[in-house]
């Protein structure tokens, strides 16, 4: 073995081994260039070293690296002879951080190799995304039907139906009033099925303009119509392939699209707009509606044969007024959710508030309950929500009580009952006017606060 190389000679050989490398000082003068780099440029190293960088490489960004002090990684750079390179540029600093120059290296100079590497990286990235999604799903606590909140007899029957039908390929129609939480039950069907790791695509048929709905659902090929995107577009049904698609507000689907949907359900394939190529589909279809589909069929607004196709399994979600026993559980669930989202510290609600909730008919259903709780939680400064935290909600309750009271007292026409009815009505109107402020309501009624509380207790308004 010969003598070890001097450190400067070793460093020169190390930099030269980087294949395409060039170093400039803080003035922009070339101080080093690798032999391979000089060969590509077409000059000798002696002709290049000592020359300002811009004279050799007019479009260089090395001086910009010195100016900004920031490295530039993985950038495509076209050299003077047209050769593409992938460059990494770094500022050269001393131990005190002062910049004394910059170095550029290129790992590849064959753009075909770069394209091939990029394709491999993209493939690996997509595979990694799939594995990450599956891993995240495995790490999660397995979805349980108990995640659907409610123990009332109505909900128990629906849960049992979901558990039996979830792993099948049967289409599901979910019906119910607005705000009953139909999408929650659709999620349960998907999560309990063997398609849980596939896409779950949700489409609100009422939210998409009717002239765009067909292309959104079924996609289109390139040149299908004026303004079509280059390369075409994948529709929602293709996105849901091997998974589940939720068609919310299915009653808003125009009749021509109902025919196309029926054909897809029958043949399990579709053609994009402007294409003659068939795409095989393996999807589970869930539909939601708050409309009376049977009435729409009688009126000629919905295809009867499509109704039978989507209504293989029907889940009719009851309104909240028919499942009042679930309100305590729903309150507990929503408060936890609100605490997490708004960073609140609410523990629960008082018995008085719960009693008001149980006496209310909830025309907005579960969604109304969640919004009422959300406002009270965010505005509250105490751990327990009491009646005072729902001053915005009390007028709704009082109007509800007044309506029910009118129905009740209309059947009892004694003088005493009429007097009580009139007194109760006056108290409710005073509370509505003062937004639940009992002191102000007592002043309006010209009675003491203690007298007001006695009457509130008498008429079950506390």
Q: Approximately how much beta-strand content do the residues carry?
A: 5-15%
User: Which ranges are low-confidence, i.e. pLDDT below 50, for 5 or more consecutive residues?
Assistant: 407-413
Kindly name the structural category.
alpha/beta
Form type? elongated
The side-by-side strand order for the widest beta sheet comes to 2-1-5-4-3
How many DSSP-defined strands?
A: 14
Termini distance? 100 Å
Largest sheet: 5 strands, antiparallel
Number of helices: 20
In percent, how helical is the residue content?
40-55%
Give the overall average pLDDT: 84
Rounded to an integer, what's the Rg over CA atoms?
36 Å
Structure commentary:
The protein has 462 residues and is of the alpha/beta class. Helix content is 47%, strand content 15%. It contains 20 helices and 14 strands. It has helices spanning 7-16, 35-41, 45-48, 53-56, 62-68, 111-139, 153-165, 182-192, 210-218, 236-239, 255-267, 293-298, 304-310, 327-342, 351-359, 365-379, 394-409, 415-433, 438-445, 449-458, and strands at 20-25, 30-33, 72-78, 84-93, 99-106, 172-175, 200-204, 244-248, 269-271, 278-280, 284-289, 313-316, 348-349, 384-385. A 5-stranded antiparallel β-sheet has the order 2-1-5-4-3. Helix 14 (327-342) packs across helix 16 (365-379), helix 17 packs antiparallel against helix 18 (415-433) and helix 18 packs across helix 19. The longest helix has 29 residues, at 111-139. The chain is elongated. It starts with 6 loop residues before the first helix and ends with a helix. The relative contact order is 0.06. The model is unreliable at 407-413 (pLDDT under 50).
């Amino acid at each position: 073995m010969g003598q070890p190389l001097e450190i400067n000679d070793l460093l020169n050989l190390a930099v030269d081994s980087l294949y395409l490398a060039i170093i400039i000082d803080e003035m922009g003068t070339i101080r080093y260039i690798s032999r391979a780099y000089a060969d590509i440029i077409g000059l000798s190293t002696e002709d290049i070293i000592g020359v300002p960088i811009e004279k050799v490489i007019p479009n260089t960004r090395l001086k910009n690296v010195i100016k900004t002090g920031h490295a530039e990684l993985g950038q495509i750079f076209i050299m003077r002879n047209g050769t593409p390179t992938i460059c990494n540029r770094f500022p050269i600093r001393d131990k005190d951080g002062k910049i004394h120059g910059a170095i550029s290296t290129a790992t590849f100079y064959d753009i075909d190799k770069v394209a091939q590497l990029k394709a491999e990286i993209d493939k690996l990235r997509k595979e990694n995304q799939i594995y990450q999604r599956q891993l995240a799903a495995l790490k999660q606590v397995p979805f349980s039907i108990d995640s659907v909140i409610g123990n009332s007899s109505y909900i128990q029957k629906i849960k049992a139906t979901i558990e039996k039908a979830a792993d099948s390929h049967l289409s599901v129609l979910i019906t119910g009033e607005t705000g009953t939480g139909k999408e929650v039950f659709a999620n349960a069907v998907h999560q309990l099925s063997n398609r849980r790791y596939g896409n779950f695509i949700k489409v609100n048929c009422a939210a998409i303009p009717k002239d765009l709905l067909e292309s959104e659902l079924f996609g289109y090929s390139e040149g299908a119509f004026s303004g079509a995107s280059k390369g075409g577009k994948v529709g929602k049904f293709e996105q849901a392939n091997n998974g589940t698609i939720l068609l919310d507000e299915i009653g808003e689907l125009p009749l021509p699209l109902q025919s196309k949907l029926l054909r897809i359900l029958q043949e399990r394939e579709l053609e994009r707009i402007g294409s003659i190529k068939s795409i095989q589909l393996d999807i589970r279809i869930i539909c939601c509606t708050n409309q009376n589909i049977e009435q729409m069929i009688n009126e000629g607004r919905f295809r009867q044969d499509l109704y039978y196709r989507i209504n293989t399994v029907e889940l009719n979600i009851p309104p909240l007024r028919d499942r009042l026993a679930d309100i305590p559980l729903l309150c507990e669930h929503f408060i936890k959710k609100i605490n997490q989202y708004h960073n609140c510290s609410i523990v629960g609600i008082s018995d008085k508030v719960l009693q008001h909730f149980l006496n209310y008919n909830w025309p907005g259903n579960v969604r109304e309950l969640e919004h009422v709780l959300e406002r009270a939680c965010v505005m509250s400064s105490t751990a327990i929500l009491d009646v005072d935290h729902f001053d915005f909600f009390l007028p709704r309750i009082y109007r509800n009580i007044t309506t029910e009271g009118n129905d009740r007292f209309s059947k009892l026409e004694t003088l005493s009952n009429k007097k009580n009815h009139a007194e109760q009505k006056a108290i409710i109107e005073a509370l509505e006017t003062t937004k639940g402020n009992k002191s102000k309501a007592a002043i309006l009624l010209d009675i003491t606060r203690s007298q007001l509380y006695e009457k509130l207790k008498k008429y079950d308004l506390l």
